[in-house]
Structure formats: structure tokens, C-alpha cells
Amino acid sequence: MSPALRQTLRRALRIGLPLSALVLLSTIFLVSRSVDPNSAARIAGMDPEQMTREPRIATARFAGVTEDATALTIAAQSVRSEALELGEGPLTLSFVAPEGQLTFPNDSTASFDAATARLDQAGGALTADGPVTLQNSDGYVLELGALSATLDRTRLTGSGGVAGRAPAGEISADALELTRSGGADGGYLLAFTGNVRLIYIP
What we know:
This protein is an alpha+beta fold. It has helices at residues 3-31, 37-43, 48-53, and strands at 56-65, 71-81, 92-96, 99-103, 109-113, 116-120, 125-136, 141-150, 155-166, 169-173, 175-180, 188-193, 197-200. It is built from three helices and 13 strands; from the N terminus they run αααβββββββββββββ. The protein has a six-stranded antiparallel β-barrel. The longest helix has 29 residues, at 3-31.
């Protein structure tokens, strides 16, 4: 290839390549369809009308400490207020897929998750609808019909039947209660009540 032809080809590419890129970009913007603001909500499985009627917060997290020094955290897939005005009176919140954890002063823990829950600030209680899974750092993994927790002090109550795994084997009962033990170590007490049955597995 002669030097003159090589120089001509170089000039043509220097001008032609940027022009080709501009043509491609303009084609993309001209051909693309208009954006439907409701399409994202449909893909995510959300109802825009329901979200307008019932505003909610996604991936919310709450934390606090009880009077007897137990740290309580609650995370949920979404949270909505049952009151029309958030600034008026105590909060009443509804949770979807809540996950809660109690951390005791001796660093032992107990956690639970449920399908839905309701926090009543005026009543000072959190109630979770079953099935509820409760487990602790000592090796208990339990299924409950329902769970209730007080917000000012450490007290969880499970009702509607209890069944699951204990460190010594399989356990079932009518109900249970988890409270602070009151000992110097800052631990907790887990008590089963009603028709209690333990199948010991060595």
C-alpha cells in the first residue's frame, strides 16, 4: 500500500468511526420504547393503588433496650403504620416477615421470625402470628403457634402449641415463657408449661 493511500485511509477512518458511533447511539434512543412507571411495580409484585392507600417502609429496622438491659432489634421486609398521622399518639405498626433478636447482658441471644407481627406502643407489646420460629444460643429451635413480647422488659410468651428441638432431644408443650433469670450473669430463663413432653436422645 502506497503512503498516499495509507494516509487517505487513515483520514477516512478517523472521520467515519465517530460518525458510525453517533448513528448507532441515535438509533438506540429512537427505537427504545417509552418507560411505563407502573411496569416496575408489576414486575416486583406490588400493587401501586394499595401502596397509595397504605404507605409503607421497606426493609425497616428498629432497635431498643429494655429496662432490664436486654437489647431488642426487629427487622422486617416492610412496615406500615395503622394510624393516619404518624405524629399523633403512640405508634401501631404492622410488620411483614419480621425477624427479632434479643441480646442479653451475658451476650447470649434468642431470635424469632414470623409471617406477620403487630407492634402496639400504647400497650407496650409486640405480637407475632404463627407459625413462629424461636431459637436461642443454647441450641433450642422451636415452632410456636403465636408469640408475644413486652417492650419495656424481657418477657416472651409462646402459645398455641410448642414443638421442636432441645439440646437433650425433642420437646413439646402447650406454651412457654422466656424471661431474664435475675442472676448475676445476666442470662435468661426458658420455661415450658402445660402438657410438657421431652424425648431424650443420647
